[in-house]
Structure formats: C-alpha cells, structure tokens
Amino acid sequence: MPASAPNRVLALSEKVQEALQITKRGVEELLIEAEFAQKLARSEQTGVPLRIKLGLDPTAPDLHLGHTVALNKLRQLQDLGHIAIFLIGDFTSMIGDPSGRNATRPPLTREQIEENAKSYFAQASLVLDPSKTEMRYNSEWSDPLGARGMIQLASKYTVARMMERDDFSKRFKDGIPISVHEFLYPLMQGYDSVALKSDLELGGTDQKFNLLVGRELQKDWGQEPQCILTMPLLEGLDGVEKMSKSKNNYIGIAEPANTMFAKLMSISDSMMWRYYELLSFRSLAEIAGYQAAVAGGQNPRDVKVALAQEIVTRFHSAKAAEEALADFVNRSKGGIPDDIPELSLAGAPLPISQLLKQANLCPSTSDAMRMVEQGGVRIDGAVISDKNLKVEAGTVVVQVGKRKFARVTLS
C-alpha cells in the first residue's frame, strides 16, 4: 500500500514559518504548500534534513543565469539545513526532454553528454555549497533497470494521462509526430524521485507535468510523495524568449566579468526588475526601495549598475566587478578596453569585410557588410561607412558594435 503522510498535524514554529516564506520567495507555485509545511515541521522536530532535488540535463557545456534561478533557490534551502541533490540527467539526456517543444528533440550521444557534464558541477558550485551538495547521475539507477524494469515502469502510467501534457496534446492535434520514447522521459524523471527518496523537487514552469509524475510514482513505490516547486523561466537579453544558448540571448555564468557586466547593462529598464526578482539576493524591502527611488526620478542606470555588480561579484569577485564597471564606462565614452585581442593578418590592402571576418569580429563577409551599412564598424574610433573600403598595411584598432574589439596588424 502507498505510504501516506502522518495523520497528526504538527504546529508550525516561527522558524518553520520563516523557512516557508524563504522557500516561496520568487517561485511560481508550491505544491502542496500544506504538505511542505508539515515536512519542514517534521524535519525541525526530528533533526532529519529534507532531501531537495534539482535535475539538469547536460544539453550544453555551460550554465547560464536562467539555470541559476532554480540553483539560487536550492542554495537557500541548503542554507536552511536541508540536503541539496544536484542531479545530472546523463540517462534522460539520451532520450531528450520534449517539454515545451513542438517537435521531437534529437537525443544527445553519450560522448556529448559526458563532455557537457564535466563542467556542470564546477559551475553549479559557484552557487551551491559543494561541501553540502549530493551530486548524482541518474544513469546510476536507470541503466540497471533494463528492458524488464522499463516495461514495468511504463505500466504505471496510461497514454491518456501522458496526453494531458500540453505539448503532447498540441502536437497530436496538429498532426506533428510524437515518438514513443518521448513518453519515457517524464517516467524516467519521475523515477529519479523514487530512487532519491526526494521530499521536494525544483524545476521550471515547463517541468510541472514531469514533477507531478514523480509524486505519483513515489506513491506507487510506497513513499511519501514529494512536493514540487516550480520556478519562473528567466527571459533572455531580448526580453521575450526564455534565456537559451541556442537563441543567443544568454549570460553564461562562466563568461568573463566584463562581458557579463556589459550584457547585464544591456537589458531594458523594465526587464531589470524581473532580473532583480529572480537573481538578486537583496531583500525585498531593498528592491522596493530601488523601485521607489527610480519612480522618484533616480536614473535607472544606477540601479542596473548595482545589479550588474552584484551578479559579477557572485561569479567572479568584487574587484572584478569594479574593473568591469570601469571598463563599461570607458567603452561608453568611446574608449578602448585594455584587454582586446591582438592579431596579425596578411593581404594588405584588405577589404574591410574580409578584415572583419578574418579577425573574428563578424561571422561572414555579408554580415560584415551589413554592420558597415548600419554604422556599427569603427577603425581607430572613426565610423566606417564605405563597405568597399580597403584597409592599408599598419596597425589599427577595429570595433564592431559596442563590445567587439581587436588590434589588427596588417601586412
């Protein structure tokens, strides 16, 4: 028979109520709040920490600030004394998560997964306390399942229930193929919760269905069902799409301090508050104070600088944040950064489009021509408007846009 929560309702101490408020800050949904409050109370009474699970599939080699929305919450729960389980989905990555997609996602190869996973924990440790983090790979229990175990697991869920997922139902209605293996993804993610005896699982709003599957499977295995905490999806630099490396609207947590600072300064004034809400460790009262100050006439740029410095300090250092600010101010005044790439090219006189491509300042000559036409190219500080320009031999500082520089010696 499935286990059920203890019948006796525990009183919530001030400490538990405070922990509940910390847990709820900036989240989309906590299900089921009353159950989680009782888990917290029982943990306080028994001294047994809760097991808090966050799983990430290593689909790319780097983490970005969008990933840290959930990582920050995991760190807060870790600081409250609970066990943080950082789960690398090396097995589920080979299936491919269909969440929020309107087409089958190509599964990754084992080699791609292993390569991407190498840097995940090191980067996550910039947010989490590694000494208090349990790092696991779901291949530990998924590989031993074998064909028999997979069939038994598949028997726990019906096709009708799978089709309750928005992305599956929409694809079916639109006649877009759904591969049978995609049904295995939420089952395998749910089985992770069984294997880890998870008390709470974190995930983005697009993961809600998968998190709920975990609750149901735990009941089947006689465990008390986990609560689930869905986190908002952070919009990228475009302010529209969710942050994603594939959409090139991301801020990587392993990026250089100057790049990270400049990208943060590029977000809109309105989007800045969203970033404060989901990324800042400042108190809600302090953020409200910033909002009041801006409403009263303070330049929002000053408040954005404070946010950029906070984030850069977190992933680099306070010194790096100060240097990044100085670099940003210098660039905004038309100055040239100190640490620009230097390279030598042959072929003078070289067409400006070729120079920009060979200097890795533009991906193609056509893109280079377009940047010249838009007034986005400078040589030694002067805007270049002639897309047919040929650059003579010598050393010049070439700038494309606001952030790309190179000192080129042409012969």
Automatic annotation (TrEMBL):
EC numbers:
6.1.1.1
Q: Where in the cell is it found?
A: Cytoplasm
Keyword Aminoacyl-tRNA synthetase tagged:
yes
The cross-references to SMART domains, in alphabetical order and at most eight, read: S4
What's its job? Answer: Catalyzes the attachment of tyrosine to tRNA(Tyr) in a two-step reaction: tyrosine is first activated by ATP to form Tyr-AMP and then transferred to the acceptor end of tRNA(Tyr).
Which stretches make up the RNA-binding S4 domain?
350-411
The yes or no answer to whether the keyword Electron transport is present is no
Q: What is its main location?
A: cytoplasm
Report the residue ranges where the short sequence motif 'KMSKS' region is annotated in this entry: 242-246
Name of this protein:
Tyrosine--tRNA ligase
